[in-house]
Write a structure and sequence with these properties.
The complex is a heterodimer of chains A (about 100) and B (about 325). Chain A is mainly alpha-helical and about 100 residues long. In chain A, about 55% of the residues lie in helices and about 10% in strands. Chain A has helices spanning about 20-25, 30-40, 60-75, 80-100; strands spanning about 5-10, 10, 20, 55. Chain B has three domains: about 5-120, Helix Hairpins; about 130-210, Urease metallochaperone UreE, N-terminal domain (HSP40/DNAj peptide-binding domain, Sandwich); about 215-310, Urease metallochaperone UreE, N-terminal domain (HSP40/DNAj peptide-binding domain, Sandwich). In chain B, a hairpin with a 6-residue loop joins strand 8 and strand 9. Chain B is elongated. The chains are: A mainly alpha (about 100), B alpha+beta (about 325). The interface between A and B is large, with 38 and 43 residues.
Chain lengths: ~100, ~325
């Protein structure tokens, strides 16, 4: 727990943070096999060819955690979670674009 | 303590069937799931729905809850009548799912006995704490300069007697320079505490820019409407244009049409690959509100052969 005046510095989950398979599964407290399933489903995409060389951009952590919660809370399977995440990404992009266009007349 | 109307929370009638309640729950859980919903208070609503369902899905708890009848309206101060639950035995099961620590004082006072038993059973049990999510509204300028933001979160807290209370937790968080709309910041161990030896959950902050009066933001780029005079657009000019980092000079080429897009390279949100500012020229017409102005417009009308609708064939 932090004191009132301390300023907490977080980690931005962007392309600059790269996690190994071990780091990602530890951060999700889940077995690495489950992470591999996510890669097979195309939900998260590591850089690197071989499993031992895999490096996951930071946002993969957020996506993996989302899938875990969607599975637990709503009972969706991996394919369903993949569809939901893709649609949410599209909505977010459309929302940003709409906002730019709104004044663009 | 506030009375909670679980039927109202679920949007069902008091005589709803168990199937109707289940369907209502599934629908609301999808709608307010913090990973799906864009509403700012989604996490709180999701928990309220979970709490309501925890009671209404269990026929025994539901009957007991119904006994309270309309003893109170939602939001009113409420004290359960003595022995309100006499004759009911909650047949174990306890908290079957969800984050029981996040349930309300109201729930706790009705079903708390069981909660304590459930926690007793879990004494030797280690579980990682829940993750929390919060959306942080920042100004565009904060992405240019970096900032510190104070955020207040509602956190469940167990007192000495094992009762659950919600408590406001205030955190100061650094917003780094170069942050972009929608990016997530992970604060390790700032979520719910774990049970037993379980580690605390994490706190995820999602960055959202407040709407800006001048700029629209798309990823690391900015869009700005810049009004120019007709003669500036026609003859070319160097005009002052604002950017979040200060005023710069922008050269407008002669013969610019309204809507022309010009790029201020690298003046968008800073970062390894800094964004750009796209300036959209908007030709502003001087009002014909004086004899002099009217005279000048008339002169153009007479002396310029100009058909703005030529491309329309009329």
């Amino acid at each position: 727990m932090s004191t009132k005046n301390e300023i907490l510095k977080g980690q931005i989950l962007d392309e600059e943070v790269m996690l190994t398979l071990g780091e990602l599964s530890r951060a999700c407290t889940i077995h690495a096999d489950w992470i591999i399933d996510l890669v097979d489903e195309g939900i998260i995409e590591p850089c690197g060819r071989d499993v031992s060389e895999w490096r996951f951009p930071g946002i993969c952590l957020y996506r993996a955690r989302s899938v875990l919660r969607l599975q637990r809370d709503l009972g969706v399977n991996l394919a369903g979670a993949a569809v939901a995440l893709d649609l949410m990404d599209q909505i977010e992009q459309l929302r940003i674009h709409l906002h730019v266009l709104e004044h663009d007349r | 303590m506030e009375y909670r109307d679980y039927y109202e929370t679920m949007g069902v009638e008091r005589d709803a069937t168990q199937d109707e309640i289940k369907r209502a729950y599934r629908k609301l859980a999808r709608k307010y799931h913090p990973d799906v919903s864009k509403e700012t208070d989604a996490e709180q609503k999701f928990k309220q729905v979970g709490e309501a369902y925890e009671v209404l899905k269990d026929p025994e708890k539901r009957v007991a809850y119904d006994q309270l009848g309309k003893a109170g309206a939602a939001g009113e101060e409420f004290t359960p009548p003595p022995n309100w639950d006499a004759g009911f035995e909650f047949s174990g099961g306890g908290f079957t799912e969800g984050d029981s620590a996040a349930y309300s004082d109201f729930f706790e006072s009705l079903f708390g006995q069981e909660a304590k038993q459930a926690q007793g059973r879990q004494r030797s049990y280690h579980m990682r704490g829940e993750d929390h999510h919060a959306r942080v509204l920042i100004d565009l300028e904060d992405a240019y300069n970096g900032a510190a933001r104070t955020i207040t979160l509602q956190a469940p807290d167990l007192d000495a007697r094992g009762h659950v209370h919600t408590r406001d937790r205030t955190l100061n968080v650094k917003i780094p320079k170069g942050i972009r709309q929608g990016q997530k910041i992970r604060l390790n161990g700032q979520g719910s505490p774990g049970m037993g030896d379980g580690a605390a959950g994490d706190l995820y902050l999602e960055i959202e820019f407040k709407p800006h009066t001048l700029y629209r933001v798309e990823n690391q780029d900015l869009y700005l409407d810049l009004p120019v005079a007709p003669w500036e657009a026609a003859l070319g000019a160097t005009v002052k244009t604002p950017t979040p980092a200060g005023v710069v000079d922008l050269k407008i080429p002669a013969g610019s049409a309204s809507g022309r897009k010009m790029r201020l390279k690298g003046r968008g949100i800073p970062g390894k690959k800094p964004g750009d500012i796209y300036v959209l020229l908007r030709i502003a017409l001087p009002a014909a509100d004086s004899d002099k102005a009217k005279e000048l417009y008339k002169k153009m009308q007479q002396e310029l052969a100009f058909n703005p609708r030529a491309a329309l064939g009329v």
